[in-house]
Amino acid sequence: MGILKLENVGYRYKDAPKNSYVFKDINYEFEQGKVYAIKGKSGSGKTTLLSLITGLERCTEGNVLYNEKNLKKMNLDIYRNTDIGIIFQSYNLLPRLTAVENIVLSMDVSKVKIKNKKQKALELMKSVGLEEEHSKRKILKLSGGEQQRIAIARSLSYNPKIIIADEPTGNLDKDTENEILKIFKNLAKNENKCIIIVTHSQNVCDNVDTIYELGKL
């Protein structure tokens, strides 16, 4: 049974003509323990779809269900801070903080109950292939691949069931991309996470369980 479902989802901008949809009749299902790719040409609505999944936007038609609960009836702040982790292409880390401080801050925001947050953050960093020596470095002192690993660790800090990644390897070379993909596949297979990746990369698509392609209307 899917943890996340899109049922007959359609979306159009508020000021758009009545029949002018970004997409319509989308029916996708996502399960834990699998890696998914959402691909499509520019303008097909990939980022918009992520906004619907994360509850930042509300669909014009249809419903988004998390554990069979309609997002329209859920507390979306709690949903985003506990159930779903988000990873961005540009990392969205705070440059004035160190690597470990970025992860701890995420724990503070989600109000997760962890006795030693710094130690947990170090464990998360190790799980994505970073040593303790990286923890004290400011974000801008890290490479792109290292920053993305910190972003992944941050998204895991409150143990969400779903990880959403928006072009997570778009700024990385192929070798680093493959290393990030290994982390995602490990999270799915060994930690039962549902990983959803929006991507233009064929290499990413070649390494996932299921591909959903958005077509421009």
- What is the CATH class name? Alpha Beta
Distance between the termini: 30 Å
Structural class: alpha/beta
Strand order of the largest sheet: 6-7-8-3-9
- The CATH topology annotation reads as Rossmann fold
Low-confidence stretches: none
Summarize the amount of helix as a percent range: 25-40%
Q: Give the name of the CATH superfamily.
A: P-loop containing nucleotide triphosphate hydrolases
Largest sheet: 5 strands, parallel
Number of DSSP E strands: 9
The H/E string reads EEEHEEHEHHHEHEHE
Number of helices: 7
Average pLDDT works out at: 93
Q: Kindly provide the radius of gyration, computed on alpha-carbon positions and rounded to a whole number of angstroms.
A: 17 Å
In short:
This protein has helices spanning 46-53, 76-83, 99-110, 117-127, 144-155, 174-191, 202-205; strands spanning 4-11, 23-30, 35-40, 61-66, 69-70, 84-87, 162-166, 194-198, 210-214. The chain has 217 residues and is an alpha/beta fold.
3D structure, described in words:
Strand 7 (162-166), helix 6 and strand 8 form a beta-alpha-beta unit. The protein is an alpha/beta fold. The model has no long low-confidence stretch (mean pLDDT 93). The longest helix has 18 residues, at 174-191. The chain has helices at residues 46-53, 76-83, 99-110, 117-127, 144-155, 174-191, 202-205, and strands at residues 4-11, 23-30, 35-40, 61-66, 69-70, 84-87, 162-166, 194-198, 210-214. It is globular. 34% of the residues lie in helices and 23% in strands. The chain has one domain: 3-Layer(aba) Sandwich (Rossmann fold), CATH 3.40.50. A five-stranded parallel sheet has the order 6-7-8-3-9, with helices on both faces.
